[in-house]
Description:
alpha/beta; 2 domains; 15 helices; disordered N terminus
Amino acid sequence: MPEERADVQRIAVLGAGSWGTTFAKVLADAGRDVTIWARRAEVAGEIRDRHGNSRYLPGVALPARLTATADASLALEGAQAVVLAVPSQSLRANLTAWRGLLPPGAILVSLAKGVELGTLKRMSEVVADVAGARQDEVVVVSGPNLAREIAQEQPAGAVLACTDHERAVAIQRASSTGYFRPYTNTDVVGCELGGACKNVIALSCGMAAGLGYGANTMATLITRGLAETARLGVKLGADPLTFAGLAGVGDLVATCSSALSRNRTFGERLGRGETVEQAQAATGGQVAEGVMSCTSIRELAQAQGVDMPITDGMHRVCHEGVDPRKVGAELLGRQQKHEWS
Length: 341
């Protein structure tokens, strides 16, 4: 990587949701010049003029050096790194609109966690495909990163994965603060699959909570969910050790156990008997990432010949109307086997 990339100073964050705004705050607190692009002009104005984002991070004060705009071209002007902070299933459409505005040589950073419906591509593959970039020009962020806790400056770790280690290091330097500690990894496949699959497993934990089950059930779902995630990852070339780290078990535990997790709370509503449409209406019209990803991950697993029974069950609940209790009974009634087979 050229020497001038070692110190990334000017960064654009495209997306002003809770995680995009939080990561922008982290970058600004690390001393970087950050501009957020917000789809709504009023959100951009509040971030820029009143140093807050009451829609997504109520009560959180944002750094004065953090600015915002509703004009993507202004946000991207002169950026040395571009952070893509939009949902996984809308990443392709958004990036297609921004493609001609991306500064040449900028490091592309993906915050999205998912597998694209239809193409079954991971987010870094979507970014490279749409932007015409090489895989080693894309950095992915993963780990136990509940946005609100980090915005409140509670200590947290993360993983920055890129096949070009020096690019990951450049973003590591640009995002290191007293409360946010990023590590680097070259296993992009493992980090991305860990981040995508944990949303689906969090749905199952939420459903279990909604059905009234306790810690034993949660621990079993988390552990067996990690096992099926690792099976898929290893089949696709991931390092098994990745799933024992922040992007694997770390992200999984945080997302499955916290009430701040949209996937877990969405699943809890389903476990209480609500439909996907009712749960969506109750959460401000937002669908949890795992509701969409359970289908694409299921298809990816089937294409690879990998058994993922929890993921399959979540797809059936969310998209075929199967009762969560029935799925639970089927999981318990599966053929008995050795734990590591």
